[in-house]
Amino acid sequence: MGIAQIVGLALLLGCVVIGWLAMRRLSLVRSGGVDVSLRRVRASAPKSTRNWNLGVAHYVNDDFVWFRIISLGRRANVTLSRRDLEIIDRRRPGSTEEYVVPPDSTVLRCRDGQRTVELAMTPGVLTGFLSWLEARPPGNLGDYPQAS
Fold first, then answer.
1. Smallest Cα–Cα separation from 88: which of 130, 46, 48, 118?
2. pTM of this prediction?
3. What are the sequence ranges of the domains in the chain?
4. Which fold would CATH assign to domain 32-137?
5. Keywords assigned by UniProt (predicted)?
6. Tens digits of residue pLDDT in 86-126
7. What would the mean pLDDT of 123-138 be, rounded to a whole number?
8. 130: DSSP letter
9. Main-chain dihedrals φ then ψ at residue 91, nearest 5 degrees
10. CB burial readout 60-86, b (16+ within 10 A) else e
């Protein structure tokens, strides 16, 4: 096998992977997904533009399910429960973040139990997210006795 054939095979493989990722994103968006960038926040890590990931999110009952775009896996990468989700802070992206999050985004810092994440959303997606979050039933429905 010559060098040209190896390079051709590598290019073909690269095109197949890129095609798979494009089809995956298209499938996620067509099935009701919205574009959301996510960053996991760690107390020890300094604030930077690193660790932002592009993704598509779905609302599944009481869960906000997020899929990373650049991933060959089919399962959700992050699931946030609406019952435990709390918005801690809301801000505009910093000057260095404007290049890694969608244009015109708002960044929400959210806590889901012990985990803290930042979500970057465009205005339309933000409106839908806040509506979904505010529509949660009051209290913990799991405490009510079941009807017999």
1. 118
2. 0.73
3. 32-137
4. PH-domain like (2.30.29)
5. Membrane, Transmembrane, Transmembrane helix
6. 999 999 998 888 888 888 899 999 998 888 999 999 999 99
7. 88
8. H
9. -155, 165
10. eeebbbbbebeeeeeebebebebeebe
